[in-house]
Every structure is written in C-alpha cells, then in structure tokens.
Write a structure and sequence with these properties.
There is one protein chain. By secondary structure, this protein is an all-beta fold. The protein is 0% helix and 51% strand. Strands 2, 4, 5, 6, 9, 10 and 11 form a seven-stranded mixed β-sheet that branches. It is globular, with a radius of gyration of 13 Å. 28% of the residues are buried.
Length: 116
C-alpha cells in the first residue's frame, strides 16, 4: 500500500492550494478516505473524509465552506481543494486509508504554509 501526497506549498492568506494523494496497492474504490493535518507543536487533527463512492463528504468545522474533498476512483487519487487559506491552516497534511484487517496507512505528508 502506498499513499503519496503532493501539492503543498507556501501561500499568502486568502490563497488556494490543491492537494493530491496518489494511491496504490489496494482497491481504492472500496474504502472511505480521510485527510488529516498536524501543525507544529500540536496534536494531529482530522480535516475531512469522503465515502468510498464519493457520495458524501464531511469536514471539521474550521474548514467547512473553504475546503472541498473529492476523489477520482478511476485514477486512484484523492484531492483536497483548499480556498481562503488562513495562517492557522499551516500544517503537514496527510491522507489516510483505514483498510480494516489489511492495516492502517498514512502518506508521508505535504507541507502547507500560509503566511504573509
């Protein structure tokens, strides 16, 4: 199983980024997926989740209305569109796959820095 995040970077407040998570080694379309993040000195935080078929998404309150999670099951790829970014969104962002008895997997992360 492999999860590879990309798309992070440094942006000004109010800016946008689109994160991607390319997956392999499991049947992507069978599993719900999650984006999480961890800011320096803080505990990891769940950000958003999506059903295996993409029919439903859900978000932590602090990103509702600004972030949009999606997936392309044909490409085995997860996305996180982030708009109206704030300094408090600065963190390492990870995608997560809980494959049940097959194991629990995180990518290596992609850094998002929001600063003026």
């Amino acid at each position: 199983v492999r999860l590879v995040e990309s798309g992070g970077g440094m942006v000004q407040p109010g800016g946008s980024l689109r994160l991607s998570c390319a997956t392999s080694g499991f049947i992507f379309s069978n599993y719900d997926m999650i984006w999480g993040r961890q800011a320096p000195g803080k505990d990891p935080e769940w950000v958003s989740g999506i059903y295996n078929n993409g029919a439903r998404t859900y978000y932590t309150d602090s990103v509702k209305g600004r972030f949009t999670m999606s997936r392309d099951n044909a490409k085995n790829t997860l996305y996180l569109e982030m708009n109206s970014l704030k300094p408090e969104d600065t963190a390492e962002y990870y995608c997560h796959a809980d494959l049940g008895v097959l194991g629990d997997y995180w990518g290596q992360g992609t850094q998002v820095t929001v600063t003026a």
